[in-house]
Amino acid sequence: MIKTAPTFARIAIMAIFAFGSFAGGLYLWLAFGGSSPLGTKGYRIHVLVPEATQLADQSDVRISGVSVGKVVKLAGGPNDRSDITIQLRSRYAPLAKDSRAMLRTKTLLGETYVELTPGHPAKGTVPEDGTLPPAQVEPTVEIDEIMSTFDPATRKRFEVWMQSQAEAIGGRGADINAAFGQLPGFTEHFDDLLRTLDAQGRAVTKSISSTADVFDAISQREGELRGLITDSNRLFSVTARRNQDLAGIFRALPSFERESTATLPVLTALAKDGDPVVKQLQPAATELGPTFAALHDVSPEFRGLFTKLDDVVSASQKGLPAFNDILARFPTLLDAFQPFLRNANPMVQYIGNNNREISAFFGNVVSATSPRDSIDVLKNAKDSVHYLRTSQLLSPEALAYQVRPVGSSRQNAYQQPGAFDQLQSGLPVLTAGPCSNPDLAQPTSALPTELEQYISPLVYRTDGSDVLRPVCRAQGTFPGYSTIFPQLRAEQP
Predict the structure, then answer these.
(1) Alpha helices, DSSP H only, in 354-372?
(2) Average pLDDT, whole number, for the chain?
(3) pTM, rounded to two decimals
């Protein structure tokens, strides 16, 4: 045992060693997420989470993947919840009350952290050492909970798959190590490939965009793709059953290669002779490209058409002679229709010019005849009442018989198309002659006397003057004709 007194140099060395050990331990502690024992206490709040079995002390607190704090304490809370205390950096404090918290995992193996979604500070903040409202804490879905949603058969198959993966890599450690050993060379060659692709950036971009067009075309041809997969499955099944024939093909392949070796020079000479012809046909082939593309789109329909042409050919052997006879007599039939069509075409044209008025007429008929009401008119009736909408115009012509057209009448048997669009400027009449006539009720009234005394004031003015009437103006020449009303005449042959 050494009993000599330590010198100043030894004491200094021991002090430096102790300080270095403390500094190294403190660095490792901070590097692995620990808080500084000499640092000040930051902004802390409590969060009540339903499941925190995988959460550990000093776990990350993140916002959008950025670490903003640490979990400094774990404790039990009310209602089977865990009370976790999180400490945020000063730049992220204080936390808004409507912020949301949720536990997430970084990997499939665990490493749980707290994910925060910041809210709006205008709605209030959580005070120091306060608690985030439980309603703002989202439930956590663990991997075992996801697995528990599967039925027993699916979980059993997943277990067998995991065991199969273990058996697949069992005893292959050396191969896996060798693969990792070859990885640097692979990355070098892959880097050369990436540089080449970068140099051909425009071509790669065009290739990728063309791939999108290909997949778009495939999605539009879903039926054809399904048929291709079904036919491929049938082809593989037939191939499996014809394995002996395939073996014979491979046995005959060497002889085929020898014959091909002798044939290829002849084909090469033929290609040289045909090259000028192909070059001359190139412009025509370029022009035919869009035609072939259009034919490709309609090829499924043509295939179905040609498949059914056999029945048409069989029926045409008897039908074509009869059809030829019909065609021979058809011109005579068309000639017989000429007088009728010359008279019918003007009527059809006139109806076509008034399509809005005709549509409105039928629409009003439907609207007037379709209403129903559940009013119990007969007191004992249980079904709804089907009634008719009607209206009666109150005018001098409706109250009494008139010897001539009255001045307030705007009747027009030949309204021009779209005339009702001119109501604001006055409904046009056929001629403006009756507009100057007075509105005088004749003694022969169509109403009972006791009823007329109540209705007449609604029609005539109390001062004895004419009734109110819209602006009266002549319609003018009917569009498409030289007169004020349409005159339909047969077309000239």
Answers:
(1) 355-369
(2) 78
(3) 0.32
